[in-house]
Amino acid sequence: MTLDAFTLAFALVGSALGFVADAIAHRWPAHEVGYSARPRFDWRTFLLVVVGAFTFGVLGGRLGHNANALLVYVPVFAALLVLLATDLDQRLLPDLVTLPLIAFAAIVLLLGLSPELSGKDLGL
Question: Distance between CA atoms of 106 and 112, rounded to whole angstroms?
Fold first, then answer.
């Protein structure tokens, strides 16, 4: 993996998505009654920015300009960042994120769009 402009751009996008995922988890879903509000920026924010930058940087470095693979992995990685953020904040995984992610994975599998399965029989 080389550190080129594409990889760096993906890392920056990932860090921004990590920051946004933390902001989403801070406000949504509604917190339980009696929840003591945490500071707006804390270790979770830092962790999500670092994880987002790292994962998207590796994604950009490994896939390069493979548009088909990016169309599959970018939405999945973004949803996983939101799930990580809500899990860290509230210890739950909202159905509003997990159920569409399951449907997306099923569509990718059935249409044979998965880069990991290209050239292989699907064994449905």
Answer: 10
Burial of 1 (0-12, 13-18, 19+ CB in 10 A): exposed
Q: Which candidate, 103, 80, 69, 100, places its Cα nearest to that of 14?
A: 80
pLDDT attached to residue 53: 97
Please state whether 31 falls in left (phi above 0), alpha (psi between -120 and 50) or beta.
Answer: beta
Amino acid at 2: T
Structure tokens at 93: 């995984």
pTM: 0.85
CA–CA dist 21, 44 (Å, integer): 10
Q: How far apart are CA 40 and CA 108, in angstroms?
A: 36
Question: What pLDDT is stored for residue 41 in this prediction?
Answer: 85
Q: CA-CA distance, 106 to 34, in Å (whole number)?
A: 38
Q: What residues of the chain score a pLDDT lower than 50?
A: 1
What tokens does 122 get? 């699907």
